Amino acid sequence: xxxxQELQDLxxxxxxxxxxxxxxxxxxxxxxxxxxxxxxxxxxxxxxxxKDGFDMDGKDEDLFFLSNGHISPVFYSVxxxxxxxxxxxxxxFRLIDxxxxxxxxxxxxxxxxxxxxxxxxxxxxxxxxxxxxxxxNNDPKLVYTLHGDGELQEGQNWEAIMYxxxxxxxxxxxxxxxxxxQIDGSTDDVLPMGDLKKKFEAFGWDVLEIxxxxxxxxxxxxxxxxxxxTGKGKPVCVLLHTIMGHGVDFMMYTHAWHGKAPNDEQLExxxxxxxxxxxxY
Amino acid sequence: xxxYIDQGKNDTRSGFGAGLTELGxxxxxxxxxxxxxxxxxxxxxxxxxxxxxxxxxxxxxxxxMGIAAGLTxxxxxxxxxxxxxxxxxxVYDQIRQSIAYSDKNVKICAxxxxxxxxxxxxxxxxxxxxxxxxxxxxxxxxxxxxxxxxKAATIAIAEHQGPVYLRFGRPKVANFTPVDQKFEIGKALMxxxxxxxxxxATGHLVWQALIAAENLEKEGISAEVINxxxxxxxxxxxxxxxxxxxxxxxxxxxxxxxxxxxxxxxxFLATTHPTPQEFVATKDTFGESGTPEQLMDKYGLNNxxxxxxxxxxxxxx
Lengths: 281, 317
Fold this sequence. Notes:
The structure holds two protein chains of two kinds.
Chain A: H1 4-25, H2 30-35, H3 37-47, E1 63-66, H4 72-82, H5 123-136, E2 143-148, H6 155-166, E3 172-178, E4 181-182, E5 185-186, H7 187-190, H8 196-202, E6 206-210, H9 216-228, E7 236-241, H10 264-272
Parallel strand pairs in A: 1-2, 2-3, 3-7, 6-7
Antiparallel strand pairs in A: 4-5
Chain B: E1 10-11, H1 12-26, E2 30-34, H2 38-41, H3 44-49, E3 54-56, H4 61-72, E4 77-83, H5 84-87, H6 92-100, E5 107-111, H7 129-134, E6 140-142, H8 147-157, E7 164-167, E8 172-173, E9 189-192, E10 197-201, H9 205-218, E11 223-227, E12 230-232, H10 236-246, E13 249-256, H11 261-272, E14 277-282, H12 292-298, H13 303-314
Parallel strand pairs in B: 2-3, 2-4, 4-5, 5-7, 6-7, 10-11, 10-13, 13-14
Antiparallel strand pairs in B: 1-8, 6-12, 9-11
């Protein structure tokens, strides 16, 4: 995989973007963003088949829907560095008159975003509609989603999970960011969700796990395997085992940085652990 | 007074079904979804003719709204079908975020609206849906008055880009608008010109307003009757022109007075041309079981209630 070092470098740069974005406005969600950095970099640069430019309908290309919209910093950084909009625009995150709202939206016309998300539990239903539109249009491309594990506590997900299998929506790969953390603590403390793999399987999904959810190579191999499993009559679920706050030692293994920005000193420490690669915005 | 003839009682939900069937034949992008109420929403003909364009989602309205939003990505024009209660209050946040805020071209088609749903009682009789929907930025809100108008509205909203809430009902009511009348979103219809009072009605109350105007004429009161089928955007100009002539207004709707058509008109007139107004609407209450006629009478939603409101508003001119 010749691109691997290049992607690794991009991952470090995206981490810097996330940290600098949330630090500047002293708000936003670094923990989940950092935990999903490798996933987003791999998805947009190695897994999804994308057209040049952006149009809402996204015919003849793969689509991605972010259901847990609060990890917008990683989404915005990866979109910008993929060329959807100018990298300098990351400077406007959460500021007045910005297209980079706190949670992603189509309302301000930001290229790369096809649905508003933030109020949790709605993304899978939307992705199902988009996947079924692709089938109606004889469009063979796939639909990808990302969900928080805590987000699965929202009941609408289970309506959608039941529907996806019942209606054989097999052009869909739903990934769960399985970091075991949510705002008030660990998911086991807040509301134990039991065996997610068995739950998805019981609903009729094909489930695969990526144990090293912060290892680019493991993610790429796992997602390629997930792609292989599409088109076989079942929706595909990827349980992506990640570490919240990955790549910044004092933010890891805790829910404390779910929705808190680093102060000046913390930022300096965090950036030192992630030296500049592609160039800061 | 202009005479309107009932062409034969029919339900507005059947007007929706007929409109959807026609759209199935004329617009290949139209798709339909239903949450286990195909018979109630009269969607079977569309399904028979276009099985691949129909999505039965089961009893899962939140999921249905999300799927509808997703179907627009790829160019489809989704029409969702369930009762008004389950089309609005139950799924408000899904509509708010995934449809309205996301600017998705979804047509939310809501049957069994209001109190005339009848015997099922208050759990199913939503009287708050117009208010919920009109508060959403970018949402168009339509409440047609009879079978013909509902059919025409169903066909018209497919041509409109953006989210629409289309509200209709269960009981068979007078069908009196011309079968070939063009439906223009946001355009009020003058049904009878008058000079003493303006009656603005929507939905099932339009026919009641015409009966009221006829009775009032016998008492020497000349009532102007306007049909506002589009609650939002409101045809303020039509209202303004009329009240400048008559000097008072009665609004009539099968909805809570809070949040409904009357409230929209009151707000509009307060800032343009303050006018004495009476509300024929439910008074911040839930409904109950009963026949549609009994409920319309008990909750003050018929021609008698309109006539009473006219007499009272005339005194305030």
